[in-house]
Amino acid sequence: MWGHAGDECVRRGAGGSDGPVAGGGKSPVPGRRSVAHRAQHGVGHTLLAVRVRMDGGGRAARLEAGAEFTLLAPGVPRPRVVTVREVRAETSIVDPVAWQPTDKDTKTAHPVTPSALAFPAARVTVTGSADDVRLVKEAVAASSLLTTSGQDPASAVRGLALFVDTDGGWARVSGGAGHPITRLPLRTAADARHVADCCAHIAHWHQLHDLTHPDSSLSSMVRVSVEPLVGGFKPRSTGDIVCSYTPDGGEPQVQVQIHNQSGNRLWCVLLNLTDSYASSVHLFDGDFVGPGRAGTARRGEPVWLRLPPGREMVSGAATRDVLKVVVAENPLNTEPFRPPPCAAFDKGAAGHGRAIRQ
């Protein structure tokens, strides 16, 4: 199965305060497709070049155009892949990828498994002088994760909305759910590409942050637990857990576990998504967890929490992490869960340092 099977939000405050926290490709075709990761579960059926029917009626309607399925045909030497061209209420039109179906193929219902996901592109609205707007829009157009306002009508009502305000040789990116980003230089085409890279990084982070399983009965089989070891610990009804420094300034510590409540052995990886738009798998970078058993982050060592660089340890200071577990029946490639660093988050208020210490 793909997606998250449960997550926990962890907030760390300074000075005991638990006040509000800021913020709450497979294909190069611009504005339409990007791959989150590969999947190993969720068998449905497809009638090639005609329709896709997922078990549990209506589940196919939750997919985006561009999603991939692999046919589970025994005895076929090479995997055969189809791509969703058009999503309908109960079925989807699909196209074969790099292979030619026979007449028999197009008239036969085949078992399939989802092999790659697609997401709506993040919509970027650019304001400022005509020259600055042109520079940024040209850079944005080169990214398959992004689209500009009006370029892709579908993204106007779905997906993430980002804003780039330009003025006097500078650009400020906003609209993401993370910590505010310091302004970026905008004087050359290279600067504009850097701004677009920043937007694409935020879009990728949001894809991981918003990743959910379409079947809640499957996602309920795995959960994440966070238990206190050192420092303040206040669970909230929202699902957030507020951890605070000790009175003498000691960093809070917790134990994080992944619980497999299913009857099958599952391969799990734990994503740590910070409000500095970082994503890593260093807490639990991929291993099998047996049925009825639990896997412990950092191989049983405590998880240390701290404020990231650039945020002073004063009363009310805080940062936020989301811990999200991804599960599958077989090992997954974890590279898509680790977007490359973006220089926009290297220092200051946009520090890209890990808030959870290894």
Protein architecture, described:
Residues 1-40, 338-358 are annotated as: Disordered. Residues 13-26 have a biased composition (Gly residues). Residues 1-11 have a biased composition (Basic and acidic residues). Helix content is 11%, strand content 36%. The chain is mainly β. The protein has three domains: 4-24 and 215-357, no CATH class; 44-116; 122-209, 3-Layer(aba) Sandwich (Rossmann fold), CATH 3.40.50. The strands form four sheets. A six-stranded mixed beta sheet has the order 14-15-1-21-17-18. Helix 2 (130-141) packs across helix 3 (189-209). The two termini are 28 Å apart. Mean pLDDT is 75; it is low at 1-6, 15-62 and 347-358.
List keywords for this structure.
4 helices; single chain; 6-stranded mixed sheet; mainly beta; 6-stranded antiparallel sheet; 358 residues; 3 domains
- Gyration radius, in Å: 22 Å
Can you list the strand order of the major beta sheet? Answer: 14-15-1-21-17-18
Helices and strands, in order, run as EEEEEEHEEHEEEEHHEEEEEEEEEE
In round numbers, the mean pLDDT is 75
Tally of helical runs? 4
- Determine the N-to-C terminus distance: 28 Å
Pick out the low-confidence regions: 1-6, 15-62, 347-358
Q: How many DSSP-defined strands?
A: 22
Number of domains as seen in the coordinates: 3
Task: Classify the beta-strand content into a percent band.
Answer: 35-45%
| Shape label | flat
Structural class: mainly beta
| Percentage of residues assigned to helices | 10-25%
The major β-sheet equals: 6 strands, mixed
